[in-house]
Write a structure and sequence with these properties.
23 helices, mainly alpha
């Protein structure tokens, strides 16, 4: 690999990129309390695997209505600001979520009287998610606006757009790397209350770049009433159905969300050329299927804790390794990722992801016992190696799509554009979560739950069906994306053949005209 390729991320760095990179860095740091929170939920909250998946579905919905945040950021000033004030507001939301979580863990009297523990946990998580989403919308908009465009070719502009997305992913991964292991290690030695209080430093990170860097003014677009009011009505619908006991509420919310997002995307992109519009939507459909792959849910982690004996510090080590390898993977392979076709990139990422699921399945069936006898290493070594290899793939898969979205972002309306595309992509994750919920109904996995008041067992651990669950998830995760990739490859080939045919017709027409003259 050439030296120029290795130093490329350093060469393209500019001071004006700092505010958005600090936001992405803070986003990465938000995983700091993740391990401690998982153990806190397991030890102190009576939530089943299915309940946690359902909560995850509802917490994903703010990401799905990012178009409302995008319209605010693009069209409405807050205290005379289109960027800075929104970052500050988001920081307040994140800090409020951290304080609620610390109050719940520390049993602060003025917090625990507000609602039940499960409700406080949900509200805390929701506030944090809202803050992160709002800052992410601002950063996405700035990732388009910070590029120098005057007197430059479109090819150079596209290259910088892709590299800014790369720098954003690197900043996010660097934040994860610096705090992931630390969060797990501190969860071993300090109280949950103090751990959650430390997360108050994360919103301070996100506003640091905004404080010291002057941002250029951006053109303010008129409010797109279709997007704004459609998004607000959609949000009201989600809230109403979320508070109701209506059967299949999550499923109805997902279907309606998908219809609305597709409609709003069509409204925003109706002025694009028809061929370009078709290509974008087919690509988005392929990415949707790729991101809609189900997971095994929390049962897999419970198995690691209860059966394999993994503790908080070890999960911190895994997170540390994963974040570091994400940085290494993006740094060394970003140029390849941006130059190869999206179909080839996603195809090999799908196959690699399937292969990297196999070690966990093998561990369920006792691989670690065999390796310990014959090779002297057990489950922890296997999981560490597997995690190190698998970590870069999730971030690498995002770079081509983010660069494509950035390239076609309309001037002055970038936040809304990114928000709509991100909402579509996040609905794919919701689809995966719904599929995970159904799979957890078919293959029931349960952990031991204790009543801490009477110290009696409420439910017993049962991992007998986890192996079947892991195998099913892996097969779906391999086959479904490949179908989408093949459909997109067929579409692009047809488009290429059509273009080649038109070029030949033009050449023949030109030759005939030349001879006649």
């Amino acid at each position: 690999m050439k030296l120029d390729s290795l130093i490329q991320p350093i060469k393209v760095m500019r001071l004006r990129y700092l505010p958005l990179l600090m936001i992405y860095f803070a986003y990465g740091c938000s995983v700091f309390s993740g391990i401690g929170e998982s153990f806190f939920v397991k030890e102190h909250l009576n939530l089943s695997a299915e309940s946690l998946i359902v909560i995850g579905i509802w917490l994903s919905l703010p990401w799905s209505i990012k178009m409302v945040f995008g319209q605010f950021v693009d069209s409405l000033t807050l205290f005379g600001s289109q960027r800075k004030a929104y970052v500050y507001l988001a920081a307040v939301l994140m800090a409020s979520g951290s304080l609620l979580m610390a109050g719940l863990a520390g049993r602060w009297s003025f917090v625990v009287v507000l609602a039940s523990d499960n409700v406080i946990f949900f509200i805390s998580s929701l506030l944090t998610v809202l803050g992160v989403v709002l800052q992410d919308v601002v950063a996405d908009a700035m990732s388009v606006e910070v590029i120098e465009r005057e007197g430059r070719s479109q090819q150079d502009i596209d290259k910088d757009l892709a590299m800014v997305q790369l720098l954003g992913r690197l900043s996010l991964s660097l934040g994860m790397f610096l705090v992931a292991g630390l969060g797990g290690w501190l969860a071993e030695v300090m109280s949950y209350q103090n751990l959650f209080l430390l997360t108050l430093s994360i919103p301070l990170i996100s506003i640091t770049g905004i404080l010291f860097i002057r941002l250029d003014k951006v053109p303010r677009k008129p409010i797109n009433k279709t997007v704004l009011f459609g998004g607000l009505l959609y949000a009201v619908f989600i809230i109403v159905i979320g508070l109701s006991d209506f059967p299949l509420a999550q499923e109805i919310a997902f279907v309606v969300s998908l219809i609305i997002i597709i409609y709003l995307l069509r409204a925003v992109t109706k002025e694009l050329p028809r061929d370009l519009l078709r290509a974008i939507f087919v690509a988005a459909f392929m990415i949707f299927i790729f991101r809609a792959s189900p997971t095994a849910g929390p049962g897999a982690q419970w198995f690691m804790i209860d059966v394999l004996g993994f503790d908080k510090a070890f999960f911190g080590t895994l997170s540390q390794i994963g974040a570091f390898m994400s940085i290494i993977g993006m740094w060394f392979f970003a140029r390849v990722i941006t130059e190869k076709s999206i179909t080839s990139v996603l195809l090999w990422l799908t196959v690699a992801g399937f292969l990297l699921e196999l070690p966990l399945i093998a561990l369920y069936y006792g691989l670690h016992e065999w390796t310990m006898v014959y090779f002297g290493f057990g489950a922890r070594t296997i999981v560490m190696i597997d995690s190190a290899i698998a970590s870069p793939f999730a971030q690498l898969a995002m770079i081509p799509m983010l660069a494509l979205i950035a390239r076609y972002a309309p001037k002055g309306n970038a936040a809304t554009w990114f928000a709509l595309m991100a909402s579509f992509m996040n609905l794919a994750l919701t689809a995966g979560s719904l599929l995970s919920k159904y799979l957890n109904k078919v293959f029931v996995v349960s952990r031991e739950v204790l009543d801490h008041t009477t110290n009696t067992v409420i439910s017993f651990a049962n991992y007998s069906e986890l192996g079947s669950l892991l195998i099913t998830v892996s097969i779906i995760g391999l086959s479904a994306p490949i179908v989408g990739i093949l459909l997109y490859a067929r579409f692009t080939q047809r488009q290429k053949n059509k273009k080649d045919k038109m070029d030949k017709i033009k050449q023949k027409h030109f030759a005939f005209t030349s001879q006649a003259s």
